[in-house]
Every structure is written in C-alpha cells, then in structure tokens.
C-alpha cells in the first residue's frame, strides 16, 4: 500500500461485535491510524458526536437497538456536518437491493464483511480524495463573496 498517509484521520467505528472491532483495530494499527473511537452502539456514538466530529464514521449494519442504517438516517437528518461526514457501512448483506437501500439511506460506501486491509485502505483513500476535491471546490465557489 502506498499513496496516502492516513495516520492523521480521526475515525469513529461503531459495531456491537467485539471481534469485528478487534479486526478493524488491527487494520487501523497496520495503517498507523491511531485517532479512533471504538463504540458498541449508536447511543454511545450520538453522545460521542456531541464531543467530537470524526473525519469518517464506520458502522455495522446489524446492531441493536439502532442499526447502522437507522443511525445513518438519523445523523443525516440533523444537517450540517452530519449531512456531510463520510459514513462507511460494514455488512454481510451485499445483495444489490440491500446496497441500494444503504446508499439511499445516506451511507457514502458499503463494504462487505469480512473486510480486508487493502479494500478498507482503498475506500478510505477514495473518501479522502473526494473530500479534498470538495474542499477545494468550496474555496473556489463563484457564489462566495468576501465582505471584508
């Protein structure tokens, strides 16, 4: 893997499966991503989001009592930062209809479990790349007016 240095990313991972959290933690360790909050449910994630705004959120689809899609829908409905933060959904449900449902719910990307370091790295790089383009587009917005 070469290209982007992702070590400065601030990431939130939400999954109620401790084994999956360990796998993601191992992958992030290999990528030198250390600014990660690992949470086991949406309720804790909402509380953490009041304190900090991660660059990327990774959530599982199948969680209780609030699943990853409902978490995403609720977050997106808040607007502002919450409507823009990239959200990657981890799932074993990779059927076309399910993936489309996830995208329509507001997730930025869907990754099939089990996730590999190579795939996660490529998706994170793509998100960072898109975010960089979006930020530069905002800087050159023709509607921007400097009022001094």
Q: Can I get a quick summary?
A:
This protein is of the alpha/beta class and 148 residues long. It is built from six helices and five strands, in the order βαβαβααβαβα.
Describe the structure.
By secondary structure, this protein is α/β, with parallel strands linked by helices. The protein has one domain: 3-Layer(aba) Sandwich (Rossmann fold), CATH 3.40.50. Helix content is 47%, strand content 16%. The chain contains 6 helices and 5 strands; from the N terminus they run βαβαβααβαβα. The chain has a 5-stranded parallel sheet with strand order 2-1-3-4-5, sandwiched between helices. α1 links the parallel β1 and β2. The longest helix has 23 residues. The radius of gyration is 16 Å and the shape is globular.
Write the layout of secondary structure elements.
Layout: E1 10-14, H1 18-30, E2 35-39, H2 42-51, E3 56-60, H3 68-77, H4 81-84, E4 87-91, H5 96-104, E5 109-112, H6 117-139
Parallel strand pairs: 1-2, 1-3, 3-4, 4-5
How many E strands? Answer: 5
* Dominant shape: globular
Question: Low-confidence stretches at least 5 residues in length (pLDDT < 50)?
Answer: 135-148
Strand pairing plus helix content: what structural class? alpha/beta
What's the arrangement of strands in the largest beta sheet?
A: 2-1-3-4-5
Strand residue percentage? 15-25%
InterPro entries: Bact_response_regulator, CheY-like_superfamily, Sig_transdc_resp-reg_receiver
Pfam family, one: Response_reg
Keywords: Phosphoprotein
Modified residues (4-aspartylphosphate): 60
Which key terms come to mind for this protein?
disordered C terminus, 47% helix, 6 helices, Rossmann fold, CheY-like_superfamily, phosphoprotein, 5 strands, Sig_transdc_resp-reg_receiver, alpha/beta, Response regulator, Bact_response_regulator
